[in-house]
Design brief:
- This protein has one domain (about 1-190).
- The protein is about 85% helix and about 0% strand.
- The protein has helices at about 1-10, 20-30, 40-45, 50-75, 80-90, 90-115, 120-130, 135-160, 160-190.
- The model has no long low-confidence stretch (mean pLDDT about 80).
- It is globular.
- By secondary structure, it is an all-alpha fold.
- The longest helix is centred in the last third of the chain and has 31 residues, at about 160-190.
C-alpha cells in the first residue's frame, strides 16, 4: 500500500497541477500524511529549476499551515483524531515521553523536527496537546521548514539533476548532522 501511495505521489509532480499537489502534500504531511513533500519538490525543482524558489516557498507556507492543523488536532481533538494518528505511526510510546520535557524544550522540538526526517506531524500534534505558545510554534515552524525546503530547492537550482541522487539518498543524514552541530554549538556556548 505504501509503495502505491509513493508512486501516486510521485506521479503528481509531472502533472499540470503539480504546484497544487505540492501544496496539498506539504499541508497534509504536517498533520496526517505519511510521505514527505520532498517527493514532489525534488522532481519539480529538477524539471523547472527557474521555479525552485517558488516551489520551496509554496512548500514552506503549506507545511506551516498544515502544522497549524496538527496543532489544532492536538489541542482540541486529541482523543478522537490525534491518538489514532499517533498509534497508526507507532509513536504513542514516544509521544508519552515528550510530556516530561516539552515545556522546557518545545521550541527546539519544533525546530529540529522541522529539519530532520522525524515525522513533523508528531511534533505539531504534541505542540497542541502541550499548549506550546502559538507564536513560538509558528516562528519555529517557519524557520525550520523554510530552511529544509529552501536548502533542497537551492541545491537543485545550483546543481540540477546531478544532485538529485545525493539529496534523495543522504538528505536525512545531512540535516541530522546540521542539527547536531547547531544544537551542540548552542550547548557549547551555554556552558563556556
Amino acid at each position: 500500500m505504501l509503495r502505491r501511495l509513493y508512486d501516486w505521489t510521485l506521479s503528481l509532480a509531472a502533472g499540470p497541477r503539480a504546484p497544487h499537489a505540492l501544496s496539498a502534500v506539504a499541508f497534509a504531511e504536517s498533520s496526517v500524511f505519511p510521505l514527505p513533500p520532498d517527493l514532489l519538490l525534488i522532481p519539480m525543482c529538477v524539471s523547472k529549476r527557474h521555479r525552485a524558489w517558488f516551489y520551496a516557498g509554496l512548500c514552506t507556507i503549506a507545511s506551516v499551515l498544515g502544522g497549524l492543523l496538527g496543532y489544532l488536532i492536538g489541542a482540541v481533538l486529541f482523543e478522537e483524531v490525534a491518538k489514532p494518528i499517533l498509534a497508526f505511526y507507532g509513536y504513542m510510546d514516544k509521544f508519552d515521553q515528550f510530556a516530561q520535557i516539552f515545556d522546557d524544550w518545545g521550541w527546539w522540538f519544533v525546530f529540529i523536527a522541522g529539519l530532520t526526517p522525524f515525522p513533523y506531524k508528531v511534533i505539531t500534534i504534541a505542540s497542541g496537546v502541550f499548549a506550546l505558545n502559538l507564536p513560538v510554534f509558528i516562528v519555529a515552524s517557519i524557520v525550520s521548514r523554510g530552511i529544509r525546503f529552501f536548502v533542497v530547492a537551492g541545491l537543485l537550482y545550483l546543481f540540477g539533476p546531478a544532485i538529485r541522487d545525493f539529496i534523495e539518498k543522504r538528505l536525512a543524514l545531512v540535516f541530522t548532522v546540521f542539527v547536531v552541530l547547531l544544537v551542540g554549538g548552542f550547548a557549547l556556548i551555554k556552558f563556556i
